[in-house]
Amino acid sequence: MGRPLPHLTPFDLSLNNYKIIDPTSPVPYLERNENMSLRWSAFNSQAERVFLLCWAEFHGCFKPGVEIMVRCQEAVMAKNNDTLLTELVKLKELVDQLTVVFHKIDLNPRTDGYADPIEWGQQYAKFSYPLSERVPTHSGMHLPIFHVHP
């Protein structure tokens, strides 16, 4: 895979590690936590499932974001304030939806989105630690959505 040393990336663990349960259910978007399951699980735990599927959902939710930001830039260059405002409102709606996705990771043990923070910290956090200084750690900051700046 062209890696200097064996290591797992966010793509391995989350973004390419889910199955869509119902491909005919695209509303509001296809990649929803409730419409996905993990392909491969390291610990077979609820915390792992909730966190990894939420990361995938962040990206599923934000798919239109890059195109919207490009249209914003085009509107700025064309000095078209009406189009810019329309696209910025669409972008704000996407960012607002990210908050909803984030709140699917729940600390309430009586909910479907419960992710035990102790379990997550003791299992997965240690599992994602790099084996060498020459490879990146598995961090949410490696996720593509964090490298897009409107």
The strand line-up of the biggest sheet is: 1-2
Distance between the termini: 31 Å
The helix-strand sequence is HEEHHHHH
Tell me the fraction of residues in β-strands, as a range. under 5%
Structural class: mainly alpha
How would a crystallographer describe the biggest sheet?
2 strands, antiparallel
Radius of gyration: 18 Å
Helix content percent band: 40-55%
Principal-axis shape? globular
Number of strands: 2
Q: If you average the pLDDT, what whole number results?
A: 86
Q: Low-confidence stretches at least 5 residues in length (pLDDT < 50)?
A: none
Description:
- The protein is mainly α.
- The chain has a domain at 62-132.
- It is 45% helix and 4% strand.
- The protein is built from six helices and two strands, in the order αββααααα.
- It has a two-stranded antiparallel sheet with strand order 1-2.
- The longest helix has 22 residues, at 81-102.
- The radius of gyration is 18 Å and the shape is globular.
- The mean pLDDT is 86.
List keywords for this structure.
single chain; two-stranded antiparallel sheet; 6 helices; 45% helix; globular
Brief characterization of the structure:
With 150 residues, the protein is mainly α. Helices cover 45% and strands 4% of the residues.
